Amino acid sequence: MTDNAATAIDNPRSTVVRRRKGVNWEKWGWVYMRASGVLLVVLIFGHLFVNLFAGEGVTQLDFGFVAGKWASSFWQWYDFLLLWFALVHGSNGIRTIINDYSTPPTGTGIRWLLTPHGIMKTALVVSTVVLLTLGTLVIFTFDPCPAGSPADLLPSFCSVAR
């Protein structure tokens, strides 16, 4: 008969679990992915319905359609929410992939930044911030009829061009 004490596996629930103090970012990232995914389904199907099915369908999509749509603050905020939820949702997914498939560095500071893991995460954060900033600026500063522009360069629906 063999010695069972040497081959026995400890019960994993019998060990003391030490929890780190502070915010559990992985848990909140997981919760965000589920909540934003549900919200994105609603926002995306609403966006597709208005742009592709309502009115004249896909043939209505042009500069004038977007300009008319963004004349309403409702559509500006709708597209703003769609942009932010979709981009942060996608970036969080890429962050998870980086964490799963690259070796986390042991150093801190500049040594951390120079590792492939640090370079990928830094590039992700920078690209996310740049795209969110540019997208937000486009949505809220879009003006199809800027004051002082030559009338021949303005679209036909601008009052200056008539």
TrEMBL record:
It is found in: Membrane. Keywords: Heme, Iron, Membrane, Metal-binding, Transmembrane, Transmembrane helix. The chain crosses the membrane at residues 28-54, 74-98, 119-142. One of its GO terms (molecular function) is metal ion binding. The keyword S-adenosyl-L-methionine does not apply. InterPro entries: SQR/QFR_C/D, SuccDH_FuR_B_TM-su. GO terms for cellular component: membrane. It comes from the Bacteria. Its main location: membrane. This is Succinate dehydrogenase.
